[in-house]
Amino acid sequence: MDFIIQAIVSGTLMGSIYGLAALGLTLIFGVIKVINFAHGSCLMVGMYTAYWVVKLTGVNPYFALIVVVPLLFVFGYFLEDLLINPVLKAQGDVREPTEIIVVTSGVWYILDNITLMMFGAEYRVVQTAISGKSFELGQIIVSTPKLYGFIATIIVSLALVWFLKSTKIGKSIRAASLDREAASLMGINQYRMYNIAFGIGTAIMGVVGCVLIPFYYVFPTVGVIFDVKCFIIVVLGGLGSIPGALIGGVIVGLIESIGAQFMTSTWTELIVYAVFLTVLFVMPSGLFGEKRDW
Amino acid sequence: MRKWNIRRRGRRRGMMNNTKRGFILFIALAVACSLILAGSPAIAKTKVVKIGNILPLSGPSASVGLQGKYARELATEMINNAGGIKSLGGAKLQNVYVDSKSDPTVGVTSAERLINNDRVNILSGCWNSAVTYPATQVAERYRVPFIVPVSVRNTITERGFKYTFRIAAKDAWWARDQFEFLKDMEKKTGEPLKTVAFVYENGDWGVGMAEQWKPLSEKYGYKIVLNEPYPSTASDLTPVVLKIKRANPDILLLTSNASDAILLTNTMAEMGVKPKAVIGTGGGHADPMFSKNCGKNAEYMFDVVEWEADLNKPGIPELNAEFKKRHGFGLAGESVDAFASVFVIADALERAGSTDPAKVREALANTHLKSGPGMIVSYDAVEFDESGQNINAGIVMVQFRMVDGKLERVSVWPENAARAGFKAVFPMPKE
After folding, report:
1. Domains of chain A: total
2. The pTM is what?
3. Which chain A positions have a beta carbon within 8 Å of B228's beta carbon?
4. I need a labelling partner for A208 at 20 to 30 A (CA). Which of A100, A218, B326, B412 fits?
């Protein structure tokens, strides 16, 4: 039975990191009601930023958070301001402007290819103090960097919930997400709220970047690997829902990990999609999605 | 037939337009030739043996095509400087190159052209298996010997052809030699090996390798405890590593691309999975990124390769330095086979004492090339079997070892070609 417990432990740890990656996507969707196709690229930017900070300064990747997260916030803030807000403004009365899909897809290609041009296609791994570290709990081996990832996920989610529930900006963001016009009438600058929400979404990618680099490699299209997973997780958990993203992530992680113990690992993807479709069939708005028309 | 007519007509019209200029040129050439002939009677007797080389000199495979070309030029130069083919009165080798563009159709027309227009005595090429396959067919029809230095597709020498001779190992032999190596290690170290696990990327290449491993495992008496394909783009390979851990195999055979090879190796180190032997199949494990990114985690893993620059064979360091000086990069598997092929040709011509294709073929079929500057390959002799396959062609087993604090690929098997001072560490140390 040890192997099942081992599979549950490693699946939960990896799944929580998937959930963290999906958190940014769900936040951006929940607030701006646009699907950010450049989400994977933002993750890639986060990973490269973390990589270079750690590589150049040699600091512990979790100290690097202090630099990486604000950088990514600024990056997301201005990316949204320059590219997405103009479209939103032009499409003022459309609730879900589909043009954003085209814009964010463009951002995806441009970011990936600029990175390719700047750093080349090679895989980069940085050796950090905790790379490859693990400890044993009885027969169970726990990977230290993944455990830290799990802890980071919990801290980030709690902080995010607190921020949205208790701060003035957080409340304004929620107001803007509930009803743009009403929020505007209350004196909330909705576009500013979108800036901030997008900035927070990408800042979370900075956290994911720092969490991933001790055990994962960086390359220009690394985002694509996590992108598809994030979309599944977000829809599975319910678009716009924070606990949904986390639970969805853990579900996908567990299916991958436990499923692989009973079949070849290429088949676990099938299970993930089967569960995904079943959930959508039974609960069209996802596990934690609100039952209303977005 | 019609094609030939068109060409004839074209040429005639060209001549008519330029009759006068052509005539003057002809006179000038005749005068020049007679002057040269009169001046040096020795050259007049010297025959030339033409080798037609079909190589991918443009397109995606151009870099390997060029490596083959440079290697042939170097070998030809060495042979000609050493007096050419002595049994043919010091005949010089002359290379004619045609660009195949990696296109099978171009390969076929090039072979036809080299045989009919350039009147080459021997053909060589084509690197791409897809080009070599039909091009050798043309050579067979015209009964012109065709030397294949590198093209690994099994079937190239499995069609009962009489005029095709392949120097490189067949595709299937890579898997065979992985098992040969294991048996040899088992015998030498007395370490019993009983179980084997296959872990491979789920593409054409990985699945194809696993299909070859299966019957070989049975033949060599290893029990398959895990047969696991995985997606090359996986974000997490812990589940796969966990499975390896549970299966607890003595031998782990891998076929991976670069990124997954790195992830797999590092995750295995993290989970403390250490089979007695871990063997890669080139590809990702041969990528310089792998050594760079895995560091100590990859220590004592094995990988197969056709040739490695640290082989303990006379002449390799000098030759490698000379090649590097001329072209800016060192020798590799492709260029070494091409280099050796020219010496195989020279050896056959020497023994045939004729350029008659049938006689050259006979000589090639009886090749026993054991020494000479061309023998920088990893095995001891070039000998062809009935089908024209070099029966000794084999691969080199390299082991990842820390040399001066850096992870290096060290040739360890076959033992007579291993890097000086190195021996395979087997089984993998537990700590």
Report:
1. 1
2. 0.77
3. 264-265
4. A100
